């Protein structure tokens, strides 16, 4: 075990310089079940905390636990989509290590969730129940730059952590598109599919 | 103490404080004018295929925390999660759970409360309401803002049992309250207040006070109360809607103000939980840490 001076977390570093951060993190090879699961579990915990705060204005064991169960599909679909990309060809890092670093790339979404939690902490129950329309629009519009930032970081993940051996240009883009296509389709389909389907059917006849 | 440990400690403190504050609200039976008054939220969604954030059993427990006597779990075009919640609530002796569905179609959304089988969304509002009634349920117009008026023709309106006059939209849309009033004025319907709970903001913030007969605090009693329009709802700025005699009766009793949810000030336990949550989460995710090469908690 080597002690170095304090540094910022990988999540913060990847927000600012994803290429360098992933290169550094890839150098320390790790593997194992716990390595694969630690960041997905942390993501779940954060989601549970956000659920608890928004439903009740506080953190409670009951609501955190319920939020964790409700949103378990998020890391499951992320891991499944990553696995579909990872196992397409030979890789130089273990799947566990790749999964761990892939979840570091959730940093923009973690930042957004933290901001979303802070917002609720500042609101009364009435403000949380019926926020003014400009705030609703601001929250919805903020998702686009976060999604773009996340895609940018993931592109560097696929370039630095899972490059095609032989260095073919464009493979990182292909991996990103495939991962997004699988992950987002499953996530949105599961969470919103039943609500969206009648709108689609009703409009196309 | 290292920053990660401090962040973790703050989170633990936040969770302890919040869990201590997370107590069911006292909810003694309310009797008024010979009626038993039940606080009901007719429109809630779970996370099981219905884009909510709580599980069906989580909804039941949350209803108890919010002082609700009954909820309808109204999944989008499905009733599976409602049946799960209903079974769970009966098991633990929790609030009454009405199995329901929110029937979605681009021109109208209908709450079907007190049904047992899923009703197809591929039909007109009038036809869907007939099917709701054939199952013994009640049909409530869900958030009938102008975007959803197209499907409510005269055939549907004459069959409708209730319409939401209190919904989060009355706080979000500048003219929301007036729009719901306009819709409800088109036909004699029961005034309904619902939170349309998906997890953003407290359940039961808009609620319906259903007046049932004293010995009939049951699912059937609630449905009968809606059919007979024995409801009182408080909308924006505390304005009362519903049966005029019952509104007067409620006003004489103080308007159920002590039961109105979440207008209470935030206590010190809640503030401790919120501050600890924000600082703890920020620190755990983004904080400085000693860069040890260690196969352990993410920090290396």
Instruction: State the order of secondary-structure elements of chain A, H for helix, E for strand.
Output: EHHHHHHHHHH
**Unreliable residue stretches of chain A:** none
Assembly status:
heterodimer
Quote the beta fraction of chain A. under 5%
Task: Please summarize what this structure is.
Chain A has helices spanning about 10-15, 20-25, 35-55, 60-70, 75-85, 95-105, 105-120, 125-130, 135-160, 170-205; one strand at about 5.
Protein model, in words:
The complex is a heterodimer of chains A (205) and B (300). Chain A has helices at residues 10-16, 18-27, 33-56, 61-70, 73-86, 95-104, 107-121, 125-129, 133-160, 171-204; one strand at residues 3-7. Chain A is globular and about 55 Å long. In chain A, 77% of the residues lie in helices and 2% in strands. The mean pLDDT of chain A is 91. Chain A has 205 residues and is mainly α. With 300 residues, chain B is α/β, with parallel strands linked by helices. Chain B is built from ten helices and twelve strands. The longest helix of chain B has 19 residues, at 3-21. At the A-B interface, strand 1, helix 1, helix 3, helix 4 and helix 7 of A face helix 1, helix 2, helix 6, helix 10 and strand 12 of B. Strand 1 (3-7) of chain A pairs antiparallel with strand 12 of chain B.
What's the helix and strand layout?
The complex is a heterodimer of chains A (205) and B (300).
Chain A: E1 3-7, H1 10-16, H2 18-27, H3 33-56, H4 61-70, H5 73-86, H6 95-104, H7 107-121, H8 125-129, H9 133-160, H10 171-204
Chain B: H1 3-21, E1 30-32, E2 35-44, H2 56-65, E3 70-76, H3 80-92, E4 96-105, E5 108-113, H4 125-134, E6 138-141, H5 154-159, E7 162-166, H6 169-172, H7 176-184, E8 190-193, E9 208-213, H8 219-227, E10 231-234, E11 240-242, H9 244-252, H10 268-286, E12 289-292
Helix pairs in contact in B: 1-10, 2-3
Output the keywords.
heterodimer; A: 205 residues; mainly alpha; globular; B: 300 residues; alpha/beta; 11-stranded mixed sheet; 22% strand
